[in-house]
Amino acid sequence: MRFASFLPIPTYLAGQRAWSGNTVSMSSALLPKPQMRRLLARRMKFHLFGAFLVSLGCAALYKFGVAEPRKRAYAEFYKNYDPMKDFEAMRAAGVFESAPPK
Amino acid sequence: MANHSQLGFQDASSPIMEELVEFHDHALMVALAICSLVLYLLTLTLMEKLSSNTVDAQEVELIWTILPAIVLVLLALPSLQILYMMDEIDEPDLTLKAIGHQWYWTYEYTDFKDLSFDSYMTPTTDLPLGHFRLLEVDHRIVIPMESPIRVIITADDVLHSWAVPALGVKTDAIPGRLNQTSFITTRPGVFYGQCSEICGANHSYMPIVVESTPLKHFEAWSSLLSS
């Protein structure tokens, strides 16, 4: 109905039934219909992925910041370790009661 | 021994303790991942409006049943591996007996010579300069380094526990029962421990000190003591 274009009807009502039961039609819709369903599901999915990424990130941070350096430190210590030299140094310092300094 | 305000383990001085340190890092990493996940989701939940629209959540319920099961398996496998590794006691070079009393330890070396002595804590008033308070003893245990040692532990009166953290050893001393544990020290040194089962007024004052020395020095020490 052409007269409808002069009525102060919000543009998003274009094409939908008005309260009187008559269809109000406009020449074109200016705004697309917004997403109105599954908003919580989308937010939950997004944040669940985010949470898993954060937790994997924390685990990776600990692994490469603490665990791996500690393993490397032990390997480095024992790579060229001389127990007898270490013992003699400790003995000279008076650490042992069973092996007093010479 | 532990330094002041030390939070982590003492430096590992036996292969089992090295495995335990590595496993602890693994378990702590898993715990950190779970805690950060929970904290993130909790923060999210607390920041949004309440909604009672969710009535069906079959997919997420499946995920949060299977995922924890996988995490538990990831924890259990290395744990059981180390548990069985700790029980391997093959061909020890030396057997040492540790008997817990109120409030001192008795050690017996009966493999080659009949050697036995008591080990009392050195009182603080008698402590030489540079020695550690509440950790030093009058007679230390001496063992050969890099050799498998078996320790048989029991008690004379009440429950005690023979523990040396640097070696990854803690075994209960139970009257009327012989418990067995073993370790190998990877390096020479002096390792401290304390009684780890409440046993009365002086439970905190019966420490354990293990000296790990080359075999030659161990033999010289044991000959000296038994003569």
UniProtKB/TrEMBL annotation, chain A:
Q: So, what pathway does this thing act in?
A: Energy metabolism; oxidative phosphorylation
Task: Report one GO cellular component.
Answer: mitochondrial inner membrane
Q: Where does it live in the cell?
A: Mitochondrion inner membrane
Does the keyword section mention DNA-binding? Answer: no
Q: Name one GO biological process term.
A: mitochondrial electron transport, cytochrome c to oxygen
Q: Where are the transmembrane segments?
A: 44-62
Superkingdom: Eukaryota
The reply on keyword Nucleus is no
Assembly = Component of the cytochrome c oxidase (complex IV, CIV), a multisubunit enzyme composed of 14 subunits. The complex is composed of a catalytic core of 3 subunits MT-CO1, MT-CO2 and MT-CO3, encoded in the mitochondrial DNA, and 11 supernumerary subunits COX4I, COX5A, COX5B, COX6A, COX6B, COX6C, COX7A, COX7B, COX7C, COX8 and NDUFA4, which are encoded in the nuclear genome.
Q: Which family does it belong to?
A: Belongs to the cytochrome c oxidase subunit 6c family.
Q: What is this protein called?
A: Cytochrome c oxidase subunit 6C
Source species taxonomy: Eukaryota, Metazoa, Chordata, Craniata, Vertebrata
Automatic annotation (TrEMBL), chain B:
Q: Which Gene3D superfamilies match?
A: 1.10.287.90, Cupredoxins - blue copper proteins
Cellular component GO terms held in the UniProt record = mitochondrial inner membrane
Q: Which SUPFAM superfamilies does the annotation name?
A: Cupredoxins, Cytochrome c oxidase subunit II-like, transmembrane region
Query: Which CDD domains is this protein grouped with?
Result: CcO_II_C
Co-factor binding comment: Binds a copper A center.
**InterPro entries from the xrefs?**
CcO_II (IPR045187), CcO_II-like_C (IPR002429), CcO_II_C (IPR034210), Copper_CuA (IPR001505), Cupredoxin (IPR008972), Cyt_c_oxidase_su2 (IPR014222), Cyt_c_oxidase_su2_TM_dom (IPR011759), Cyt_c_oxidase_su2_TM_sf (IPR036257)
Q: Which residues form the Cytochrome oxidase subunit II transmembrane region profile domain?
A: 1-90
Please classify the protein's predominant subcellular localization into one broad category. mitochondrion
This protein's membrane topology, according to the annotation, is: Multi-pass membrane protein
- Which key words are in the record? Copper, Electron transport, Magnesium, Membrane, Metal-binding, Mitochondrion, Mitochondrion inner membrane, Respiratory chain, Translocase, Transmembrane, Transmembrane helix, Transport
This protein's source sits in the domain of life called Eukaryota
Keyword Metal-binding applies: yes
Q: Which family does it belong to?
A: Belongs to the cytochrome c oxidase subunit 2 family.
Q: Indicate what this protein is called per its UniProt record.
A: Cytochrome c oxidase subunit 2
Per the UniProt entry, what species is this protein from, by scientific name?
Answer: Gallus gallus murghi
